[in-house]
Every structure is written in structure tokens, then in C-alpha cells.
């Protein structure tokens, strides 16, 4: 993935946080996946094995796109919160993240 796309995704993630269209924290994101409120999930690529498995399995089961492109520090810096997993609840933001992450 090109660096400009990485920067666009991280900038958009910060914008989504300011627009209050993100949920973060393991329990809250998990609940949002199960209730079909999460439209896209960011999981840190340096998350623990158990956390990674739990979220990739849940995303697969509930058909929620999941990205493991970024580290915990990148996600934390973009959102201003120290988080390993972030859920996007607004469909417009989710579509844009999918588009940007598909372009390489």
C-alpha cells in the first residue's frame, strides 16, 4: 500500500473520531459487531494472538470487513486514544475505508 493511502486512512480515522462515528475498546467493539452496528473494524497488526483470533473470527461470522494494516501506535496516534481495536459505525466512513484500503 502506498504511503499516501496510509496517511489518508489514518487522517480519515481521526476525522471519524471527531465526528463521533467510532467505537473503541474490545468489549464495546465486540458488542457492536454482534449487533451489526459496526460496519468496519480496525484491528492492530501487533495485537495479541487471542485478541486477533477473537476479532477476525467475529468479523468473519458477522460479515464485517476487518483491516489489520496498522499497528497499535498508528491507530492510537490517529485517534488520540490508546486502542488495539476500533469499530466504524457510520456506513459512509466504512465504504471510504474499504475503497482506500483496496487501492494499492
Automatic annotation (TrEMBL):
Domain Ribosomal protein eL8/eL30/eS12/Gadd45: 8-89
Keyword tags: Ribonucleoprotein, Ribosomal protein
Domain of life: Bacteria
Pfam assignment, any one: Ribosomal_L7Ae
Classification via InterPro entries: Ribosomal_eL30-like_sf, Ribosomal_eL8/eL30/eS12/Gad45
One GO location term (cellular component): ribosome
The name this protein goes by in its record: Ribosomal protein L7Ae
Lineage, highest ranks first: Bacteria, Bacillati, Bacillota, Bacilli, Lactobacillales
